[in-house]
Each structure stands twice: as structure tokens, then as C-alpha cells.
Amino acid sequence: MRDFALIAAITAAYLLLRGFPSWIPEIARSWMAVIVISVSLGGWRGRKRKNPDIPSIGTRPAWLDRATLVCTLMTLAGGFALFLSSTPPPLENLAARLETFWRPGAAAERENAAATAETGNWLWNDHQQRPLPQRTNLKPGNRPEVFLQPQDQASSRKLRERRIYVTAFALGRYQNQAWSTLDPKARTLLATPDGWLRLDPKRSGTNITCEVFHAANHPAGNPLTSLQGIVATELPELTRLDPGLWILPPAGKDGYQYRTVSKPCSLDDLPSDPSTQPDTRAPAEYLALPPDAQGEKLRDLALTVAGEGDPLTRLKRLRDHLRTNLGYSLRTDNPRDLEPLENFLFHEKRGHCEYFASAAALLARALGMPSRIAYGWSGGTYYENSNLFVFRSREAHAWTEVLLEGHGWTVLDATPPGALDREYARNATPGEKPPAPEELTQPEAAALTEAGHGLRGPLWLCTGFLGGALGLGLLRRRRRLARQIPGSHKQVHGRDNYLAAFRRASNRHGRPVSPSLPLRRHLAGLDDAPHFARELQAYHYSVRYEGRPPDRRIEQRLRKAAEQWR
Predict the structure, then answer these.
(1) Which pTM value belongs to this model?
(2) So where are the chain's domains?
């Protein structure tokens, strides 16, 4: 049973260090893990000895020993947690400097990827480009990023019955392994007198009106965020950078809050209709393929996979091929240093959603379908009491959109089902409250600063436990020195002065006490042992090792007997 209890304790400590339950602070979880392991080890080692005839060596731990141990363990646990909380940034900076020195090419690639793939930023570099990274090792966070509140319960029910896509922006030009805007010239759009901006008034479908709330995270400009298929927004003005990208006006300190109207449409929403055709009025950039040999390989693969049939059937075959023959992974190694799509489609054959979306977009173009790549979020959590959908950074997603006649931009999601945390919105558990708005509006730098301030309490606790451990350790050391064996040449406590008297008497008899020799061995080696030797040995070992309380009268008698020993 003790072994099973130890295994259970190790499992519990592992879960605590892995972050479960999440509502307990990290410092507290670390301390709890150390305490659980310490208690379980104490119980496991405290089993009864198989042979009780073998005497035990040592003393029972007193309250001072236990208090010192507790303070030491709490200090170590808190210090370990503080180390894990405070050292990653400096260590990452050191690693980045070493990589810049030893591998400048890889360092430049990592900086470029970091500039365009920060969690939740979904933006581009200084050239309004979003390059596909050659290698990835993504670690999504859990920070809430977008609130979406439908105007009524009926709209919420519709959204809960379908896959939700929340769009931040879409890019249509693919060149040099990077996605970018079609037209770098910015245009200012102004609302009509009723306060609304109509962005796609001809789009067909059912209107869904939502209130959108998100933070202002991007100093260079924040993209208009909405349910996929936006047709209008209640804003005074926007800056249009692309048919799929609008920049919001400057925000206040509380972030953004505005209304949008969308008509979402996915490939799975459309009936099998052979008459559905690609929109031939699309700009040529939405059909462009890489001009080199990669374009030919993409065209051959698309024609082979899609086969013959109507456009919708061919697109679904293409999507199913990507879902079936390639694996989803947040880490890609690209050991041959190939171009990202070349490595994804024909060699490593794994990657995250941005690779699937890019491949699907270019393969659709090879079939004559205008396409682009969209970035945003999918999944979410629905809080029924607030009629609110919340999307977190771990639910960031990318997908393909194809332009079809009579339907407009339509979602084609080639990422394999089950690859993401969830596809449909999760219903919050009863009593679960949505995140506070402050969690969205707090800038990343401020969050890091506050995290540093949040370490002050645990730091003071660690300092207090450390001081307690040192103080108790010093007190324990003094008591231990006070109980030195007779062979020790250090001053003994007054209670044990009978030992000093016996040591002096042994020196007078020419039999000095060796510092390394136990009292029992010393007495056994005396040819002329004093008459009080047996009482001295029995009393000393019973007090020193068996927990017997000291007796001042006995000690005075033994001291006097030692002084009278001639």
C-alpha cells in the first residue's frame, strides 16, 4: 500500500507541475507538489523494520528538526518556482545571442518568423507580407483575444450548430513564399449618414449581427475583426489595405467595441450543385501560381487529386486529399532546408493550419478557382448566461477562401478534423464565468510587468521561509553541539557537564577519550573501569538516543562520581 501511495503522490505532483488545476497559482502548485512528494516519501520510508532485533541508530526527530525541514522544503519549492518564472526571458535572450553568433542565417529566419507569427498578432512584416516559416515550433497560449456577442439567441443557436470562423484579415497575393496584400495603396472608407459602412452589399446569405470586442494590440494598426463573410460594420471610418483587410481607427484605452453584420458561408453549407462556378471577375492575383517549377508541381498535384467533375466536387476531393495524406503538427523541422510548401507537400508532410491553408489556396488556383488565405480564430467557448462567444489565442486559425459565383468568399478548411482543440464552440460549464474585459485590453508588455509584480508576494514568502530555516538551523546546530560525545573537544552544555567531568577524569588516568570513539567502546576498553561506568553508559545512551528526559539529580551524581574517581 505504501508503494501505491507513493505512485499516487508522484502522479499528483506531476499534474500540479503540469498546471492542473489551472485556477491554483503556479507558485502554490510548486509548493504543493514538493509537500506531496515529501510527505509521501516520509511515509514510504517510515515502514516498520523487518528485523526488530537490530537496534536503530540515531534519534527521533524533534519539533525543531521537523520545523527546520518544513522551512527548508518550502524555501526550495518557492525558489524553484521563482526560478522557472523569472529565468526564461534572460535564458532565451542568451540563447538568441548565441544563435546569432553561431548561426546567423537561422537567427534571421527566426526573427522574421517571430515578427509575423506572434501569438494572437496575426499581422505582417514591414513590407505587408506574411512569409511562410521554413521551420516552426509553436506553443499557443490561453489568453482571451476576441469577444463575439450575437444580437439575439436565435443567431447564437445558428452559430452553435456550425463551425465558427472569426476573420481578422485575408491576403490574396502569393509571391516568394509569402502572402501579402494585392494593392499597397491605402484607401479611407467613410460611413454613410446612418453610421454604417457597407463592405460587401451584394453578398448572399442570412445576416448575423454581432457585437465585437477586442484589444488594441498592434501599434501599426488593428484589423477589423468579425464573423466570416462581413458585409457591413457600424464604424465611422476604415482604412482599406486589401479586399480582405481593413484597418480600424485608433482605439481608446478600453480597446475596440463595434457592431458587424456577416453572412458566413462554408463549402459544407453549399448543396452539391454542378452549376456552381468560380467567379471569373476576380483579379488575376487570386489565380496566380509560383512561376517556377513549384507551380508546375502544384498544378500536376491538383489535377491528379481533383480528377474530373464539377467545381464543388473537385474542391472537396482536393480538401480531402490534404486532410488524409498530411499530418497536423505545430513543429516542423525541414531538415533539407526546402521551401516551406515544398517541404510540407512532398517531403516532411506535416505542419500547422497555415501550411494547410496555403497549400489548399494554391491547389485551388491550379484548378482555376480564385482563392486567398484568411487568418483569425475558430472554435471558441460559448457562455449562455452572457450570450457570449470567447476566442483565445490557442484557437487562432488559418483557412482558405475560394470565390464562387452567387456565394462570394467561401470557407475551404483543409486542416484535418480533430487537429485543433475543438472545431465547434464549447459550451461553458454551469457556473463558469467568462473572462473579464480587462484580460483583453491589457497590453502584452503590461501583462509581463504585472507578472513581475505578482512575484513579490512569493518572493517575500521565500525570504521568510529562508530566514526561518537559517534561524532554526542555527538553533539546531547549537543544541547538537551541546550534545557532543565525550570525545568532542568543544564546550558541552551545562546539563551534560557530567561528560566533561568524566573526560577530565579519564585524562587523569592516562586514558584520554578519542574524538572518534563512542562512549560504549571507550568504557569497554578501560581495564580499571569505574564503578559508575554502567550507570553512565545506560543514562547517556537512553537520553541521547532513546528520548529519555534528562534527570539533573542523576547527572549531578555522575559528575560527582567522576570527580571522585581516583
Answers:
(1) 0.61
(2) 103-442, 484-564
